[in-house]
Automatic annotation (TrEMBL):
Protein name: Phosphoenolpyruvate carboxykinase (ATP)
Gene: pckA
Localization annotation: Cytoplasm
GO molecular function: phosphoenolpyruvate carboxykinase (ATP) activity
Cross-referenced HAMAP family: PEPCK_ATP
Family (UniProt): Belongs to the phosphoenolpyruvate carboxykinase (ATP) family.
Pathway field: Carbohydrate biosynthesis; gluconeogenesis
InterPro entries: PEP_carboxykinase_ATP, PEP_carboxykinase_C, PEP_carboxykinase_N
């Protein structure tokens, strides 16, 4: 697929409160890249890929994400540390300050949309201070044809001003950066941060409210691909668990790598038009599809470049080094980005305690429990003060983007499972033979073999002969899997120390229970029974 050609359409930004601005509308990626280079805001690698530095912020700032509390949201949002309320009057005042700041400047504007299924399409107008932010929007959102642009009517707008710094005492923010959703005015307002992920996650968060509340559609923080027989597989997982890696499969067409909806008609559709992948330790050998997508038109963020070559192992700026690229940079993709007939769901977790089975089959209640829990683990050295593995939970495998209570999304998942008969699998891509520092990371070739066995139907239905019920976690653990040694399938057997294994396993189940306490009053009995039922010694 070729990039769209520029359009001659013009309109005024005064409607948005931006006055006397020079509008650069719907520029091509090549034109935007040239703008970035001319302004000294980036550099090219030897492959022709644009590399930029996002500045102070190299990741999202969850404590600075707000939702305007108004007649639409006040009784529906799960308010708290994740969904922080913002007053409507304070939003209006801050919006006016941002648009006054943008007035008189050169502004980059792009019309695009989210949701590949036409029934759920959301038209978006993105207004950017910087050209590379606008190029990111080209990569990550879906791209209208020139014919569609003639009568394009945006439903939501994104106003993105990285150079504007809020005054917390006056503006009601926590610090100078902010990302605020206003469902009444249909605006995502972002300022004080150059991190591009705030743009895509702002719209994702909006859809995580709009789709279930208004359109009876289940939104998911997941990747998805589809096989030759039309069977769709869905991969949930937090950062570092392998969501993008495992879904980018040369034998299956990629639907998308991060954000999807599951409709009442039982189809899966991508929200986005691109991919936003981590590139830490990236290599052509381990992840050839992603490596090959990094070419002209892609944007590398916060990487170190030496003599025109990217050093993917260098994390001196951040461990969250990333690349954005339009999905057509991947050769084997589903067009349009829609799949039917979901057959298997994979929950990916990188268990640094080394006690969870590398693969296990979940019942509907267990699936709901693990979905609400969203478990993975932090390993020593990844954050200041982390000296041993620490459990990390993010509800629905994407808590920072979920405006409703996690139990509402979990109940939607359970209903989908029961209505469609889809199988749910818990896959540990973390450690085996002991915790981090003692054991080893489960080999990627084994994880791929387990995923492939599921997709081929080789693991079959549950039976006592073929599965073992894990004595601590209660999940069904297969006894055999093609391409994987039997000993690898049993985490206890890899430890060679039963007492140490069970002590560590019970430590983790206690963490699960402690985390789940905040959901118990919302979750029904079926979901509550899906967790580990045995307590520590």
């Amino acid at each position: 697929m070729e990039p769209l050609y520029p359009t001659t359409k013009t309109f005024s930004l005064k409607h948005y409160g931006i006055k006397d601005a020079t509008m650069r509308y719907q520029l091509s990626p090549k034109e935007l890249q040239e703008e970035v280079l001319q302004k000294g805001q980036g550099q090219l690698t030897k492959s022709g890929t644009l590399a930029i530095n996002t500045g102070e912020f190299t990741g999202r700032s969850p404590m600075d994400r707000f939702i305007v509390k108004d007649h639409i949201t006040k009784d529906k949002i799960w308010w708290g540390a994740i969904n922080i309320p913002f007053e409507p009057d304070a939003f209006d005042a801050l919006y006016d300050k941002v648009t006054a700041y943008l007035s008189g400047k050169e502004i980059f504007v792009r019309d695009s949309y989210a949701c590949a299924d036409p029934e759920y399409r959301l038209n978006i107008r993105v207004i950017n201070e910087y050209p590379w932010s606008n190029m990111f929007a080209y990569n990550m959102f879906l791209r209208p044809t020139n014919e569609e642009l003639k009568d394009f009517d945006p439903e939501w707008i994104v106003v993105n001003a990285p150079g504007f710094m809020a005054d917390p005492k006056v503006d009601g923010t926590r610090q100078h950066n902010f990302a605020i959703l206003n469902f009444d005015r249909k605006i995502a307002l972002i300022g004080g941060t150059g991190y591009t992920g705030e743009i895509k996650k702002g719209i994702f968060s909006a859809l995580n409210f709009i789709l279930p509340v208004e359109k009876d559609c289940f939104p998911m923080h997941c990747s998805a691909n589809i096989g030759e027989e039309g069977d769709t597989a869905i991969f949930f997982g937090l950062s570092g668990t392998g969501k993008t890696t495992l879904s980018t499969d040369p034998n299956r067409k990629l639907i998308g790598d991060d954000e999807h909806g599951w409709t009442k008609e039982n189809t899966i559709f991508n929200f986005e038009g691109g991919c936003y992948a981590k590139v830490i330790d990236l290599s052509a050998e381990k992840e050839p599809e992603i490596y090959g997508a990094i070419k002209e038109g892609a944007i590398l963020e916060n990487v170190i470049i030496k003599d025109g070559e990217v050093d993917y192992a260098d994390t001196s700026i951040t461990q969250n080094t990333r690349v954005s690229y339009p999905i057509y940079h991947i050769e084997n993709i589903q067009t349009p980005s829609i799949g039917k007939n979901p057959k298997n769901i994979f929950f990916l977790t990188a268990d640094a305690f080394g006690v969870m089975p590398p693969i296990s089959k979940l019942t509907p209640s267990q699936a709901a429990y693990h979905f609400i829990s969203g478990y993975t683990a932090k390993v020593a050295g990844t954050e200041a003060g982390v000296v041993e593995p620490q459990p990390s939970f993010s509800a629905c495998f994407g808590a920072p983007f979920m405006p409703l209570h996690p139990a509402e999304y979990a109940e939607m998942l359970v209903k989908k499972m029961k209505d469609t008969g889809v199988n749910v699998w818990l896959v540990n891509t973390g450690w085996t033979g002991g915790p981090y520092g003692v054991g080893t990371r489960i080999k990627l070739k084994y994880t791929r073999a387990m995923i492939q066995a599921v997709l081929n139907g080789d693991l079959g239905l549950y039976s006592y002969d073929d599965y073992h019920i894990h004595s601590v976690f209660g999940v069904a653990q297969p006894r055999r899997c093609p391409g994987v040694p039997d000993s690898v399938l049993s985490p206890r057997a890899t430890w060679n120390n039963d007492e140490a294994y069970y002590t560590t396993a019970f430590k983790l189940t206690n963490a699960f229970r402690e985390n789940f306490k905040k959901f118990e009053s919302y979750a029904n009995e079926e979901i509550r029974r899906g967790g580990p039922q045995r307590y520590s010694f």
